[in-house]
Amino acid sequence: MRLSDLPKGASAVVERVEDAHPNDPIAQRLRDLGFVTGENVRLVARGPIGKDPLLIQIGSTRFALRRSEAERVSVTVQEKVA
Amino acid sequence: MSAGTLRIALVGNPNCGKTALFNQLTGARQKVANYAGVTVERKEGRFTAPSGRVLQILDLPGTYSFDAVSPDEQITRNVLEGNYPGEEAPELIVCVADATNLRLHLRFVLEVKRLGRPVVLALNMMDTARRRGIHIDVEQLQQRLGLPVVETIAVKRGGARALIERVDSEVPVAAPAQPDDAESRAGLHVQVREILAATVNMPRQTAALDDALDRWALHPVFGLAILAVVMFMVFQAVYSFGKPMSDAIGDGFDWLGAHLAIWLPAGPIQGLLKDGICTGLGTVLGFLPEILVLFFFILTLEETGYLPRAAFLLDRMMLSVGLTGRSFIPLLSSFACAIPGIMGTRSIQDPRDRLTTILVAPLMTCSARLPVYALLIGAFIPMHRVMGIFNLQGLVLFALYVAGILGAMAVGWVIKRMRRDQSEHALLMELPSYRLPQPRDVVIGLYERGAIFLKRLTGVILALTVIMWAISTFPSAPAGATGPAIDYSIAGYLGRGLQYIFAPLGFNWQISLSLIPAFAARETAVAALATVYAVGGNAEAGGLAHALTANFSLPSALSLLVWFAFAPQCMSTLAVIRRETNSWRNVAISFSYMFVVAYAASLITYQVARFFL
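C-alpha cells for the assembled complex are given below, as produced in the milestone run.
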C-alpha cells in the first residue's frame, strides 16, 4: 500500500521508498528524513482541498508531504492501536 | 586558555532552536549579510568567553542532510568542509539538536561527525524534554557518539552556560573523516536507532499539546476559519498601526520640506532638498513602520510554529497556480506593500518557488494604489446602487482587487508552463512543535529586517527620487511661460513623447506625464496630476476630481485604473527585487511582463469601453 492511500489516523510501517525516476532527489530526501524500512508512520491530518497535502508523523516529527511525494513510500498497515 | 579568537560554526536541523541559541550567545552583536553572489543569509556574531578568548560564531542555515537540495544546504556543507570561497573553515563545529526530536536530529549529527572535524553536540530544549518525561542518558550518548555532549536551554537566561564552558576549554579531538557514499549513508539510520535504544527513554512520541492544537489548527473547516481570523488581524494591525505611522513620517518630511522652503532661498538647492531629498526620504522611511508591523507578525507566527501550518492548509490551492503554501504569507503582505512581501519570501527555501512568488507579488493591490483608485473612482464612477445593496464605486474597487489576484494567478500559471525546469519540487515541510515566541528573538529579527531595508534600499531609492526630481524640474520654464513649470522640463518632453505610446490607451499627455513620477511612488500620480492641471499644490481632491472629469472621458479613466492595477511600479519594488534576487535580469523580466500585461489590459478596457459608453 502507498503512504498516500493510508486512511486518516492509521498507522503503518515503512517498507521502502521508491524512486519515481532515476536519481530521484525527492525520494533521497525522504530517506534522509527517516522514511526507511521498519519506521512507524501515522497519517495525522490531510489538507482541506483535495485531501492534499498529507501530514505524516514519523518518530516525533511531523512532515507535510504532497500526495505525489507520499506515493513514493510503500507501507504495510498495522492493526489500529486504540 | 590563552586569549585569541576561535571560529565556531553553529549547525543543526531546521527547528532545533539554533538561532535562539545564537541570539542567546551573541545578543545584539551580530552582523547579517548575504553569502557572496547568493541571497542566503550569512549571520555572524561574537562574544568574549570568561577566559578572555573571543568566540566568533557563524550561524549556518538549518540543514536536514548533506545531500544538499537547496542553496542553503550547499552553503552549510561547503563552509563546514572549508570549501566555500572567502570563508575560512571553522575550528570547532557546534552541532545543535532538539532533545525532543533526536530520532531525526541525531542522523545529521552523525553526518557532521563524519566530516572529521572537531564537533561538540548541544542538546537543546532540555527543559521541554524533561517536562515531557523524556530521559536521556547523556553520559552514554557521549560515549556512543564519541563527541562531547552538553545540555542547553536556548530560551532561558544562562541556558547556554554549559556550552560556553565547553567551547571555552580545549577543542575536542576530531573523529577520523569517513567517506560519504550512498551505502554508508543508508547505515546512518541503523546507527541512530541503536543509539536511541541505548540512551533515550521517551514515554510519548509527541507533545500532547501539539496534538490537541493541531486537531483544531489543521481541521479542514475550523483550520481555515482560524487562518482567516489570524490573517484578518494581521491585516488590520498593518492598517491601524503601520499606516498611521507611515503617514506621520511622510507628513513629517513634508513639514520639514516646507520649513526648509522658508529658510532657504527659492532655487535649485531648495528644490533639491525639499522635493528631492525630503520627499525621497519620506517615501523610503514611510515604508518602515508597515514593514516592521508586518514582520512583527510574520516573525511571531514563525516562532510559534503556526506559519508552516498556514502553508499546509493552503498548499494545494497555491500549487495549482505554480506557487507553494509558503508563498501565501508574502503575497498577503503584498496587499499592504510589495516590499515587505518580497522581503518575506526569504521563508521560501526553494529558489524556483521563491522567484515565482517574487514575480507575482507586485500584482497584489498595495495600499499605495488606493489614493489613485479613490481619486479616479470618486471622479468618474457614479454612486449608483446595484441590486439595492451594493455601491457601484465599491464594486469597482473590489473588481480592481480581484483583477490583481486573478492576474497573479494567471501569471503564476504561465510561469509554471514556461519555465525550463518542469521537475517536481517537493513540499516536504516539517511542522515543528508549537512554542511561545521569545521576545528577544522577535526583537532581534525585527532589527535585522529594518536594518537590511534601510541600509540596502535607502541609497537606491533616494538616488532615483533625486533623478525624478531633476527631470521634472530642469530645464526650468522660460520667462513669461504660462503653463506649469513641469510642462517645460525633461519630464514634460518625456510625457509628450510617451503620449504616442499611450494614446491607444486613451491617456492624454497630462496622464502620460503623471506616470513618470508615479514610477517613483504610485500615490504621487495624484500630486502630479494636480500640478499639471494647475489646481495648485494643496488642491482639494474635489477640485482635482472636477478638473479630471472636465478633461478626460470615462473610458480613459477606466483604462487608467486598469493600468494602475498591473503597471510595473514602483521603482522601490524593482529595487527590492534586485536586492532579493541579486539579478537585474529578474528586474527586467518583472518590469517587462507587467508593462505588457498593463498595456494590453488597458488597451482592451479603453477600446471596449469606448465602444459601449
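Chain B has three domains: 5-205, 217-366+395-421, 457-612. The two ends of chain B are 85 Å apart (CA to CA). Further analysis is deferred to the final report.
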